[in-house]
Design a protein that fits this description.
It is built from seven helices and 23 strands.
Length: 583
């Protein structure tokens, strides 16, 4: 005879309590709900009413614009829900012939984007059975944009309790998305998101370039901050770019360990708001949630006529350890990239082309005023460039010239003393220039200019060390080998130094306006030095033994050599000092 067992009862209770989860909330693959937005068989019949559920669209009341990205919020006023499925639909379509509108741009943790038939990302569904009080996701009005649309959702509370809800109609404002045609005429682009700049200094803090511009189309850059309530700030960003626009919140004036808010376009021209973190010189996700957009709400974006614009809200205190408390004062970095794009779930990926401008003072989001920006401080970069040019176009070339051509004019040890002093000054100045740029940048920046510059300094130091252990003049073969090594290594160092100077102009062009004149002056100085050097080598090679006449010519040529090397150095230094900062 079968006996009752408490253990059997516990197992039975466990099965009953969990069958709801195992049957009612699978992985979220609800493609069967695409038609009719009806959950599968285990959920029973639709419950009457809305169960306290609501769906809110964050655009202007009852309106939407083609090409924009909006935030949709699904929430329950009391209690939780577990499953969901939402779509944007043409209200004129039937349950059996769905006309899906737009696409889900990003889905937060606990949800997933859902394909319907051949339509990718046509809806959003749950990805787990966890309790939820609300879900916010981004939707982009891409593809065909009918005159009127609405949001329809089914929401599962328990296995046998689910509701169907929908928004009111959302009417298209402005032109629809243009279909691709073979016409050579360019279709008019969708009007971009507008930013109210009339409130700058009153109810919001602003930075706009140029000062006095009034719309995103007129401004090359816009940043605004405005308190929504005691816990929330609204950020607006805009730039004449098609890659990304960003603001960084830093505790100092250097990049690294900074909170970054950005908007970036992807390869399909959709714009995504991102909450990121600068780890050194590279942006990474802030580690909160599963998407860079987690923690950002009420997102609106546009990419129109070459202008990227976005608006979103964020908790002032942030959403994790890497988010700054924006009530505190921070230096703001304002950056853009004209073309760099990435997907919604990626960091920016590519650094700015132009070094960001900084706020003129530290700023808190509780401040409502027009935020000025200080131009990029070029002094240390210019000082670095001038010092390196003086070292490798003027001093080092004249030091080498003395050792090569002026031995007859200056008997030993005078020529050697001149050579030693000048080369020591050249190396010392180069090291000082490296320290100057190190102070400015704060860390080693990996690029061809920096790498080759370090190589030149190492070779120059090696040259100085070798010179200290040179054999005596009468050491025969050892002296001959030393001379070959010293001259060969010196020539290699000088050539690499010139290449580094040219690369330096390219590196400086990211923050300064470097024109062809800069390259022309540098090339003229290098060419003048090389041509005069080669001519003197020819004269020296054809100098007869005991003939002193060319020694006089070569000695006098030293003045021309100095005029060329120092003249072009001064000219390039003047150009660098007067270079405009890129805006």
């Amino acid at each position: 005879m079968w006996k009752f067992s408490p253990q059997v009862l516990l197992v039975a209770c466990w099965v009953v309590c969990n069958v709801e989860t195992t049957l009612a909330y699978p992985s979220g693959e609800v493609s069967g709900a695409c038609v009719g937005i009806t959950p599968g068989a285990p959920h029973g019949v639709e419950s009457s009413g809305d169960g306290g559920m609501s769906v809110v669209f964050n655009g202007s009341a009852g309106e939407y614009r083609a090409g924009r990205t909006y935030t949709v919020r699904l929430s329950r006023s009391s209690g939780n829900f577990r499953g969901l499925f939402c779509q944007f639909l043409n209200p004129m379509s039937s349950d059996s012939d769905r006309s899906y509108v737009g696409e889900v741009a990003s889905a937060p943790n606990g949800t997933r984007r859902q394909d319907c038939g051949n339509v990718l990302n046509a809806g959003i569904s749950h990805s787990n059975a966890n309790d939820k009080t609300s879900v916010e996701y981004q939707w982009t009005a891409s593809g065909e944009t009918p005159a009127s649309i609405m949001i329809k959702c089914s929401v599962v509370i328990t296995k046998l309790q689910w509701y169907r809800i929908q928004s009111g109609p959302l009417n298209l404002v402005g032109p629809p998305n243009s279909a691709t045609t073979e016409s050579s005429e360019t279709a008019a682009e969708t009007p971009g998101l507008m930013i109210d700049l009339a409130s700058c200094g009153q109810s919001k803090g602003c930075r706009r370039v140029p000062v006095g511009c009034n719309t995103p189309a007129e401004c090359s850059f816009i940043y605004t901050q405005q308190l929504i309530d005691s816990n929330t700030v609204q950020i607006e960003l805009s730039a004449q770019a098609q890659g990304w626009v960003a603001v960084g919140y830093s505790q100092d004036t250097r990049m690294g360990s900074d909170d970054v808010l950005a908007c970036q376009a992807d390869s399909s021209n959709r714009v995504h708001a991102k909450d990121l973190y600068n780890l050194g010189f590279s942006s990474v996700t802030d580690g909160v949630g599963t998407s860079p957009s987690d923690g950002l709400t009420n997102v609106e974006t546009s990419l129109s006529n070459g202008v990227i614009t976005c608006r979103f809200s964020r908790a002032i205190s942030g959403n994790g350890d890497r988010d700054r408390d924006l009530r505190l004062n921070h230096t703001l970095f304002f950056g853009t990239h004209p073309t760099a794009r990435a997907s919604a779930n990626s960091a920016l990926g590519t650094q700015h082309v132009v070094i960001p401008a900084l706020s003129a003072t530290t700023v808190a989001v509780t401040s409502n005023f027009s935020i000025g920006s200080q131009p990029f401080d070029k002094r240390l970069i210019v000082a670095h460039g001038v010092m390196m040019t003086y070292s490798w176009l003027a001093l080092s070339t004249n030091g080498m010239f003395t050792a090569r051509f002026l031995r007859g004019a200056y008997p030993p040890p005078r020529w050697f003393q001149i050579h030693w002093v000048v080369m020591t000054l050249a190396i010392t100045l180069a090291v000082a220039a490296a320290i100057v740029i190190g102070v400015h940048v704060g860390t080693f920046r990996s690029n061809a200019h920096a790498g080759l510059g370090i190589t030149v300094l190492v070779l120059a130091g090696l040259q100085a060390a070798i010179a200290q252990i040179r054999p005596a003049p009468d050491a025969g073969e050892k002296r001959r080998m030393f001379t070959m090594l010293h001259r060969g290594l010196g020539s290699l160092t000088q050539i690499l130094a010139w290449v580094t100077l040219f690369l330096g102009l390219g590196e400086a062009s990211s923050s300064l306006v470097i024109t062809g004149t800069f390259y022309g002056v540098l090339a003229g100085g290098v060419a003048g030095v090389i041509l005069l050097w080669l001519y003197l080598e020819y004269r020296k090679a054809n100098l007869a033994d005991g003939d002193k006449s060319d020694n006089v010519f070569i000695s006098r040529s030293s003045y021309l050599f100095a005029a060329i090397s120092y003249g072009f150095t001064v000219s390039l230094g003047s150009l660098l000092w007067g270079a405009d900062v890129r805006q």
